[in-house]
Amino acid sequence: MRGARPLSNDELRIISDCFDGEFATRDKSLVLIGVSTGGRISELLSLTIGDVYQNEKPVETLHFNKHVVKGKENSRTVPVNSDGVKAISDLMQWHSEHFGDTDPQRPLFPSRQKRKGKQVAITRQRAHQVFKEVCEKSGLNGNLATHSLRKSYAQRLYAILPDIFTVKEMLGHQDVKTTQAYLGVDVEKVREASEAMIIGDNHESDTRSME
User: Fold this and answer.
1) CB 68 within 8 A of CB 108
2) What's 153's domain CATH number?
3) Structure pTM?
4) What is the pLDDT of residue 113?
5) What pLDDT is recorded for position 117?
6) DSSP codes, the chain
7) Which of 104, 117, 202, 211 falls between 20 and 30 A from 90, CA-CA?
8) What pLDDT sits at residue 192?
9) In a domain, 3, yes or no
10) What backbone phi and psi angles, to 5 degrees, belong to 178?
11) Residue 104 belongs to domain spanning
């Protein structure tokens, strides 16, 4: 979603503690895998168990096939960090408890619905609704949408590894200009800078010292 803002680490921790209900693990894992890999919501929802769980363990690199990426751009492989690996492990346990197995063909983020007797993934609209609800429950505001997960990944990666060409490759952008526009302004750094400029309680004393 155009204009969706990224989330800080503190905000992500708050959100992670606010999921509940039958599908809490599914929904929390979608958020954590999203911010750990930078996948578009359509790419994430296209994943199957077999894409992330192989040889009875979570993958350490996630491959987004060409046929699911936006505009059928080049496929890409992204490292999965410890948060993502744990999310996959938790999700596999949830699948086992919910469905009785970890069928490699089953959608990673299944809905309650079936089509022609087969489980289907939740829709992008449903994912967006779930994300908005947990953000509201967490007390967060601003323009937040599932695209915030991808933007959060991009800004967090660039803050640690300030190589825009690497970020471009991990996001699957064709043009680095898209990545530049995508990163935008690091709001948290601006917030810190703004706080450093406050007058606060020193304003009155500073004024007297000038008399």
Assistant:
1) no
2) 1.10.443.10
3) 0.85
4) 87
5) 85
6) -TTPPP--HHHHHHHHTS--STTHHHHHHHHHHHHHH---HHHHHT-BHHHHEETTEE-SEEEE-GGGSGGG---EEEE--HHHHHHHHHHHHHHHHHHSS--TTSBSSEEEEEETTEEEEPPHHHHHHHHHHHHHHTT--SS--THHHHHHHHHHHHHHS--HHHHHHHHT-SSHHHHHHHH---HHHHHHHHHHT--TTHHHHHHHHT-
7) 117
8) 83
9) no
10) -65, -40
11) 9-190
The answer as to whether 195 is a domain residue is: no
Give the alpha-carbon dihedral of 60, 64, 70, 75, to 10 degrees.
110
pLDDT along the chain (211 residues), means of 10: 84 96 97 96 95 96 78 79 97 97 97 90 96 96 94 92 92 88 75 83 48 50
